[in-house]
Amino acid sequence: MKTTVLRVENLVAGYEPGLPILNGASIHVNAGEIATVLGPNGAGKSTLIKAIAGLVPKVSGQVCLGDRDITDVPAHRMIGNGLAFVPQTENVFATMTVDDNLRLAAGVMRSKSALVRVDELYGFFPDLARQRRLLAGRLSGGQRQMLAVARALIVSPTVLMLDEPSAGLSPKLVEIVFQKLLEIRATGISILLVEQNVRAALGIADRATIMVEGRNAHEGAAATLADDPIVASLYLGASKARLPATEARP
Amino acid sequence: MNPQFIADGLVAGAMIGLGAIGVTLTYSILRFSNFAHGEFISWGAYATLLTAGLIGYLAPSSNEGYGPFSVGWGVLVAGLIAMVLTGLLAVLLDRLLFRRLRRKGASITVVMASFGASMALRALLEFLFTSSPRYFSRDLQIAVPVVPGIRVTPDQMALLGMTVTLALAVHLILTQTHMGRSMRAVSENPALARVLGIDIDHVIHITWLLGGALACASGVMLGLVVQIRPYMGFDMLLPLFASAILGGIGSVPGAIIGALVVGVSEAATVQLIGAEWRAAVAFLLLIAVLLIRPSGLFGKRV
């Protein structure tokens, strides 16, 4: 039986008091897997990932990282607990260099190993190593996404959460970014991926949860959901039925 | 035109610059104009005066002029202690007033509260020390020629050196230390900074400490070159904001360069038109910058 590294139970959360966006959402991420959360616009996918990260106030429910209850842990302590989050937009400090972005994350950990990790990550993302003196605001969309992911990896998190990393990227760049996510999974880091790009997400995910109106509508192996024409037509758009999801899955 | 205005302007600009750094940091990180910042200048000067008096009581020779300077090591040590105390005063003001209002969300309320805090702090100083001016030293200093047509006193030279040292120190803190990077990160994107593990409350404390300490240094300079009185900081408020906006909000080098421009412009105006127009210069510069380049010299375009 697989170990669950992140478990969310009956989460109710929203930006305004009395107006919850999440109405009892439950998901889990197993060790060493990529779990994806899909669904139509306004389903609460991004709110879910932000609520887990501590950026959206929670009304009720529970979030556990391994055995630890992190429901009430403030956002800035999440990373110390092993939960890293890459927001969808404005996910790099544009006025800082690539190197400063990474060293900022390393400094939070207050350990020399984090600085060593910066060099390791330059090896993992050679494109960033070449641009280390460049302001992050001058990077291309794909490079920014890589920098945001690299910065989140500095802390060697247990779970890496990404909010729509494919947003605004060309299909070629999406392929490159998602290939990196597969490489990250291979290092043992679990990934929770919120995506609008259903085809790409199901292509790399092990499991998928479909959310509708702030709660779970369907859950299962990514391959099963991708091949289910009813699920695809109801929740993922009819044109996306019969997705070739299994081709990219290792 | 007598070139002496350049030296006078640079000395005035140095005093304004240290205060303007605090204004620009507070604005860029906390997103509000703190109109009580001038009071930190006054409180810093009075705290130095009191501490120097205490040190002088314990070590009578400490306040005798050292070498060519008008004050001794007692004022230097007192200034360092007062920088910490003024920084703590700024943190205390944030804890008691600004933080509570900030959490309620309305930034205009925080700005208005800073007006109130400014009046209260100034009135308290006047109550404690009266409005009579005080001095670190009443010794007369002879200005020495540095280049043809320009004379500077040893105190003024030391103050210019101190400004360069402090401005460089702040620049190095912001660019080379983790705390400095954290401050820049919070200034640019507070939500992302939190996600990254940066404790924003801690960054805010450090910002107040730094801003308060630099305001104190500015107050000590003003006290040495002019005099110490409860309104000294309030009178600096317009030049402080003009310099911070001229340099570009959030830019430390910009605040210093903006302050030097304001200082030299004021000194030139005194010589060309008359001292009564001095205060208008900062105001005119402020209006000109807001109309022509609201982002300032080194700020991002808005």
Output the keywords.
heterodimer; A: 250 residues; alpha/beta; Rossmann fold; 10 helices; 38% helix; globular; disordered C terminus; B: 302 residues; mainly alpha; two-stranded antiparallel ribbon; 11 helices
Characterization of the model:
The complex is a heterodimer of chains A (250) and B (302). Chain A is an alpha/beta fold and 250 residues long. In chain A, 38% of the residues lie in helices and 24% in strands. Chain A has a single domain, classed as P-loop containing nucleotide triphosphate hydrolases (Rossmann fold, 3-Layer(aba) Sandwich), CATH 3.40.50.300. Chain A is built from ten helices and ten strands. Chain B is 72% helix and 2% strand. The radius of gyration of chain B is 19 Å and the shape is globular. Chain B has a domain of 203 residues. With 302 residues, chain B is mainly α. In chain B, strands 1-2 form a two-stranded antiparallel ribbon. The chains are: A alpha/beta (250), B mainly alpha (302). Chains A and B meet through α2 and α3 of A and α6 and α7 of B.
Tally of helical runs of chain A:
10
Distance between the termini of chain A: 20 Å
Helix content of chain B: over 70%
Main sheet strand line-up of chain A: 6-7-8-3-9-10
The pair of chains with the biggest contact is: A-B, 28 and 18 residues
Gyration radius of chain A, in Å:
18 Å
Mean pLDDT across all amino acids of chain A: 87
Total helices of chain B: the number is 11
Largest sheet of chain B: 2 strands, antiparallel
Question: Which architecture of chain A per CATH?
Answer: 3-Layer(aba) Sandwich
In brief:
Chain A is of the alpha/beta class and 250 residues long. Chain A has helices spanning 45-53, 75-81, 98-109, 112-124, 126-130, 141-153, 171-186, 198-204, 222-227, 229-235, and strands at 4-13, 22-30, 34-38, 58-65, 68-69, 83-86, 159-163, 190-194, 207-212, 215-221.
